[in-house]
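ARCHIVE CARD
Drawer: 12
Card no.: 0347
Subject: one protein chain, sequence and derived structure
Cross-reference: see card 0346
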Amino acid sequence: YKSHIIMEYLDERFPHPPLMPVYPVSRGQSRLMMHRIEQDWYSLADIIMKRKGDVEGARNELREALLSLAPLFAETPFFMSEEFSLVDCYLAPLLWRLPALGIQLSGAGSKEVMGYMKRIFERSSFKASLTDQEREIHDPL
C-alpha cells in the first residue's frame, strides 16, 4: 500500500487526536497539498538521490518551491493548520533530508521555512521516529 493510504487509515482508526482537518474544505486542501508534496517535491528528491537527470535543476526547483510557500509556513504553527496534521507528516521527512539532498535554504522566505522546521523537529514524536541513520543526516536546528 502507498503510505498516504496507511496514514489516512490510521487517522480514521485512531481519530483522537485527528491528523486530518474536521471540515471538508480544509480536508480537501490538505489532500491537495499532500498530493503536491508527494508528486512534485518527492519526485524532485528522487532525482537528486538517484542522481538521474538534471540534479542541480531539481535542487533549485525544490528549494524555490519551498521558499515560495514561506507565507504558509509562517501563517500558522503547523502547515496550513493550528494543529499538527498529516501534511506535516508528509513534509517532515523531506525537510529533515534537505542537507543530505544538498539543499540549503537562504534568502527570502528561508526564515519562515526554517522556523517551521524547528517547530516540527523539536516535537518529541518526531525525534522518537528517527532512526540512528536518520539522526546522522544533520544536527537538529
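Annotation on reverse: Residues 97 and 137 are 7 Å apart (CA to CA). The chain is about 65% helix and 0% strand.
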